[in-house]
Specification:
Shape: elongated
Structural class: mainly alpha
Distance between the termini: 28 Å
Number of helices: 4
Radius of gyration: 32 Å
Oligomer: single chain
Helix content: over 70%
Largest sheet: none
């Protein structure tokens, strides 16, 4: 008997939920659109931040490469001038810069990957928002004004 009552209550709850969803379908779609647009805006801000960081890393890499080339030229001049102490310190500085270059290139690769993923997510979210907006338009077209407003329960 309890199982039968439980089944009846579950069925009544399902029908009530379905009716509630039908009654407020436009409001639910509109809320989903607002949430999706908020998430899209946040994703775009994050993407912009990552792109700025990527550009900064690229500039740092270019600066380091220039400095390495300059130090290598100076080390060559020092060796030609018989200044092995200067050449040795230049070689040590170049080795440190090469290590930093390696780390920065790895960071740049990770940023490139993350930016690509985020761009794809932004595109997907934009398409989803468009689909939701089209769904809202279709729901408004199908739903008569009387059905769009919640009905008072009968007594």
């Amino acid at each position: 008997m309890f199982a039968t009552l439980k089944t009846l209550i579950t069925g009544a709850n399902a029908r009530a939920e379905e009716q509630l969803r039908e009654t407020y379908s436009i409001e639910l779609i509109t809320q989903k659109i607002r949430e999706a647009e908020g998430n899209l805006k946040a994703a775009k801000l994050t993407l912009a931040s990552l792109i700025q960081r990527q550009r900064a890393e690229q500039r740092q890499i270019e600066t380091l490469q220039t400095r390495v080339q300059d130090l290598m030229a100076r080390a060559g001049e020092a060796l030609e001038g018989g200044r092995e102490d200067l050449a040795q310190s230049a070689a040590q500085a170049v080795a440190e810069m090469e290590n930093e270059l390696t780390v920065r290139r790895q960071t740049l690769d990770r940023l490139d990957t993350r930016i690509l993923q985020l761009r794809q997510s932004v595109e997907t979210a934009s398409r989803r928002i468009t689909d939701l907006k089209q769904g809202a338009i279709a729901a408004r077209a199908v739903t008569p004004a009387a059905i769009a407003r919640p009905k008072k329960p009968r007594r």
